[in-house]
Amino acid sequence: MVALRRKVVATVDDAIDEASADVTAVLADGRRIHVFVEHAIGSLQKPMSDAQLEGKFHGLADPILGSPATSRLIEACWNVGSAADLRSLTVLAVPA
């Protein structure tokens, strides 16, 4: 990964929308592969479904909290509107 990271150059292009991505990979043999994504997943134009959002959150939080604790935190987040306060939610977000 470190070797790959050294080969990547990222630049900001203010001419494209922040929900877009314009990527060109230059391969070892000189070929160029170009991909433009107008609306990335998670943008306003292409929102993630609840299941996709939960899956992404599990992928990020499970290694820290564990899957059962992450599931409890997700459930608390979905019900935050009916919570008396945020104390119980913040407790769930702290690794045991």
| Coarse structural class | alpha+beta
Shape: elongated
Sequence stretches where pLDDT stays below 50 over 5 or more residues: none
Range of helix content: 40-55%
Strand order of the largest sheet: 1-2
E-strand count: 2
Order of helices and strands: HEEHHH
- Alpha plus pi helix count: 4
Rg from C-alpha positions?
Answer: 19 Å
Query: Whole-Å distance between the termini?
Result: 30 Å
Q: Gist?
A:
The protein is built from 4 helices and 2 strands, in the order αββααα. It is an alpha+beta fold and 96 residues long. Helix 2 (50-65) crosses helix 3 (67-78).
Keywords for this structure?
single chain; 96 residues; alpha+beta; two-stranded antiparallel sheet; 4 helices; elongated
